[in-house]
Amino acid sequence: MVEANESMPSPGRPHDVVVLGAGVSGIYQIKRLTDLGLDAIVLEADDDLGGTWYRNRYPGARFDSESYTYGYSFSRELLDEWHWKEHYSAQPENLKYLNFVADKFGLRRFMRFNMRVLAMRWDEDARTWHLTTASGEAVETRFVICGVGPLSMPTPPRIEGMADFQGESYHTYYWPKEPVEFAGRRVGVIGTGATGIQVIAEIADKVDDLTVFQRRPNWSAPLNNSPISEQEMAAIRARYDEIFATCRVTPGGFEHVPDRRGFWNVSREERLALWDRLYDEPGFGIWLQNFTEIFTDEAANAEFSEYIADRIRQRVDDPEVAEKLIPKDHGFGVQRVPLESHYFEAYNRDNVHLVDISENPIVRITRTGIQTRDAHYDLDLIVYATGFDAVTGAYDRIDIQGVDGQRLAEKWRDEPATYLGTMVNGFPNLLMIAGPQSASASTNFPRAIESHVDWITDLVKYCMDQGLARIEASPEAEAAWNEHVREMYQMVLMRKAKGWFTGYNSNVPGHEEGTIRYLVYNGGAPKYSRTLSEVAADGYRGILQSR
Ligand code: NAP
């Protein structure tokens, strides 16, 4: 919590910058701004820092990026001091890490918690933003930088009777801090995305009985996690420069380098040899070290998907259950791939049951469990792992009024429009970290976040140095970027997928099937970073600038 008078503007004087959100983005952003000596604060809706890693406390929550490619790269001292204990670190340790970073650099004093911003209004005369929080506090600032997160607006399903349930029920994002009892209990999980898959694998052997209510299966492959010894951590530290250099040049911002031999240029035996190797390797290698054609070529994708389907058949004892766990409506990797630890083996346990709700739909939640068309399932605990109103959801929940009272949620009703994923025409002095149409959600988040924060910080500094009071994306630049983002979708099979990358969410009115929304940048992290650098070097072309 900010000390009295610290980082508070003198009466009548707005802050230089207000950052929204104290997650991975906000923590680094406030460091950069305060290092410049700017009057900047972070407003955080929760009662502590950490964002994603503060909220997602559900059992099994962990990185699917390598821990050491997820951590910040900006401080050599930090890299030398922090020891990642696992290759894919779990939520408690990740939250500890973010607290360690904030405390090491003395960043808490710039953070104000329990400050949920409900409304923001642009004042054209004063060239400032007026923010109002849920508790009625008013904050004025020249610039707003949003670090509100692309996956921070959870969407419980809209099923009749949810409030009637007498047992415990949680959306995974709102998992309680207090331990949840599993032993001896009958648990139902709705949702089999990355979150559901982690939960199911983690609790299968801890509960009395587990029923998974699956609408559509997801392609998933082994995480192959393992501990990191002192010795290995020392070797990683020695390699940090090389690790981050590789992350800068790979499309996904990972150490995984795509296989560019050409899917059809090598024999089937060579393809199988690669896949056999990658399936046993840790992390996203199976997705991102693969042939690039699996992202773009239907036939290549189908052959690889069949390989993964066979792997599932080998791991699941009951052939009928195995077939239900194999996606039939999309190929491997065209939606975000969940990584798993013994997920498929969970279905070999006598206490785990799979209910295919695409065949046998949920009719309602009752006082004692879940009623499907064909049966009633008695439950003590229901877990809603039903995902998020992704990318734009957190923005839509703030009443953001720009020039002439135009509302951002209105402008983005059908799909977002941005310049570079960082700015919006009609909304001056508003900047976004990992915003819609940026290369973040489609890449290793923190790598993208660091580059966005650096670019945004340079832009704010440029404004200060040049005495600019107002910057705004030009309508032409925004239109051109939107066109480019659309073109990038046309190049990948993902455009056909029904997942959050295309803005699908059955629980949000208007985001149901059939409404593709161009939410992410698919041109890869290096191309995106190059564009950011070129725009800056070109005097921030496409950004209207005035004093
Ligand atoms: P998600 O991928 O959107 O999955 C939501 C799941 O809930 C889907 O299986 C969906 O089924 C189901 N669902 C939604 N509404 C439903 C309803 N009304 N009735 C029945 N089923 C319903 O969400 P998520 O699993 O939370 O993952 C979101 C993203 O968070 C991931 O893609 C990833 O980027 C990130 N994440 C990362 C990690 C990590 O390892 N670091 C872990 C978890 C999440 P349909 O497929 O039929 O819609």
Q: What portion of residues belong to β-strands?
A: 15-25%
The span between the termini is: 34 Å
**Global shape:** globular
By CATH, the topology of one domain is FAD/NAD(P)-binding domain
- The chain-level structural class is alpha/beta
CATH hierarchy class name of one domain: Alpha Beta
Bound small molecules, deduplicated: NADP nicotinamide-adenine-dinucleotide phosphate
Second CATH tier, the architecture of one domain: 3-Layer(bba) Sandwich
What's the alpha carbon Rg, rounded to whole Å? 23 Å
Write down the overall mean pLDDT: 95
Uncertain residue ranges: 1-7
Corresponding CATH superfamily of one domain: FAD/NAD(P)-binding domain
The largest pleated sheet is described as: 8 strands, mixed
Helix tally equals 17
Helix content range:
25-40%
**Strand segment tally:** 20
How is this structure best described in words?
The structure is a single chain. By secondary structure, this protein is of the alpha/beta class. It has a domain at 15-153 and 390-469: FAD/NAD(P)-binding domain. It has 17 helices and 20 strands. The strands form 5 sheets. Strands 1, 2, 3, 4, 5, 6, 17 and 18 form an 8-stranded mixed beta sheet that branches. The chain has a 5-stranded parallel beta sheet with strand order 7-16-8-9-12, with helices on one face. It has a 3-stranded antiparallel beta sheet with strand order 13-14-15, with no helix packed on it. Strand 4 and strand 5 form a beta hairpin. Helix 10 (298-315) packs antiparallel against helix 11 and helix 15 runs parallel beside helix 17 (525-537). The longest helix has 22 residues, at 445-466. The protein is globular and about 70 Å long. The two termini are 34 Å apart. The structure holds NADP nicotinamide-adenine-dinucleotide phosphate. NADP nicotinamide-adenine-dinucleotide phosphate binds next to helix 6.
